[in-house]
Amino acid sequence: MQDPKERPPSGLHDHLGYWVDRLRGLVSGSFEALIAEQGVTVAQWSALITLYRGEAQTPADIARHIDVDPGALTRLLDRLESKGLIRRVRDRSDRRSVTIELTTAARKITPVLAGLADENDRAFFGVLSAAERRQFQRLLAKLLRGHNVETPAGWM
After folding, report:
1. What global pTM score does this model have?
2. Fold of 22-125
């Protein structure tokens, strides 16, 4: 039996982590539904936009950029390759070295997916003013940096 002087344990709804996870699930689920019509998943979109913007070219760099383990990335790239969206290109001087290239189809669909990502962001974060959004980004960056996660420079 609990001592009446003791505080009761905190409840589920008392935890910010619960609410952050709820929001993440809503944002991600909505985006997943939007891009499903284009035949890709959120994880596949992450790799496609990373390649499209030139932020990574090798499997190892892509895995680091989108924060997945190399095994998961290999499976993701296999699926993108089977869909005709990427191709693996072996280095002629070092056959062990591979870069990933987008196909013409991927170059056409990736901007469409980016537009859907923008639309999803507006749907969820459009309730915030520009100043509130910048503050939210700064707070997210502070929390992530506190756990040694790199964040975009513009979020400082």
Report:
1. 0.86
2. Arc Repressor Mutant, subunit A (1.10.10)
